[in-house]
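Notes on consecutive records. When two proteins share a document, each keeps its own sequence and its own token line. Never mix them. Below: protein one.
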Amino acid sequence: MADIRAFRDEVIDWAAGGPGEAAGDLAVRLGVRTAVLLEGPSDLAAVETLAARRGRDLAAEGVCVVPMGGAMSVGRYAGLLGPPGLGLRLAGLCDEREQPFYDRGLQRAGAPREDFFVCVSDLEDELIRALGPAKVEEVVKAEGDFRAWQTFLNQPAQHGRPRQQQLRRFLGTKKGRKIRYGHLLVEALDPEQTPAPLDDLLTSL
């Protein structure tokens, strides 16, 4: 039976230039009403983990979370999924420096801006600040990455940098690490620690 992941795959293929008929058919069959546009898979991991922690089944609610592969794709996705395309409600997260791409893309698609929430640097930075560097280091150690973390800290480029910046950079140094920690850092949050952009997004859905 088709599920929300099949719809997401069809949307990504459509945005890459493929046909959109299958995505449209699946949207109707699955009752998709909202598309959450995120820059990448680490954001996807964080959003889906927080939703699960709150006892929410986004797919059953007609919500599909879509990693776009970068902020500059937002105009394309908004056109396909928003008012000019499937007519879905759009929501999402964006980084502060990428906000102009979102503003232009949503405006071209005639899509409201109010359900897009801004992270200062990126979602990883928001999660590190919410937890605090010491707690993030505990997560790194528990995950078996502490030796790699210590090796990273010994690199000359890291000397003198704030610990939060070091942790954020460390998460991006190995393929797949940001995705894994997108899940792990959300799991480590106390409910009152949830970063405002992430909390606001889930509340809006």
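Protein two starts on the next line and is unrelated to protein one.
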Amino acid sequence: MKTPKAPKLRSVLTALALVVAPGAVVMGTAGEAAAVTKISHATATSMFSQVGITWSSSGGCSNRNVSTCTSFDQLNLATAQGAQTLKRASGCALNITGGTETGHASGTYSHWNGYKLDYSKTTCVGNYIKNTFTYIGVRGDGAQQWRSGSGNVYADEGNHWDVTYYNCGGC
């Protein structure tokens, strides 16, 4: 008798992602080492609301194709989970001012590709980042940076925090 094949890792990850974030979409090919799970704006806002994270937009909108909007369409699930982790760990009020909308710098680990969020600067958030994470120097544009134990990078861009989430930060 033949033993049934084990489910492919991608299928298992897709099923897990849908349990964690209903409405999530797994992007990538079966040959990739780690597929990135993309979520909708509605899924992201639900996840943020669950832990008390707020968001604002200078344009009062959420259209991904308008730079004055704050959109979470095509946000990586790990990025949304990273925001939840930061909120829970810091205990600070968090307000997101930038997501996946157009108008940010390009690159693999960019806002557009779902890896970054911008946060309003508050004393609580600044103290938490500077007292908890490791200072790693100045970025090419002059922004001071700190790296969390999980590898995510927090950059002080003057009027906001620009955070690159490579993972969920220990969620």
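For the record: Confidence is low (pLDDT under 50) at residues 1-21, 23-33.
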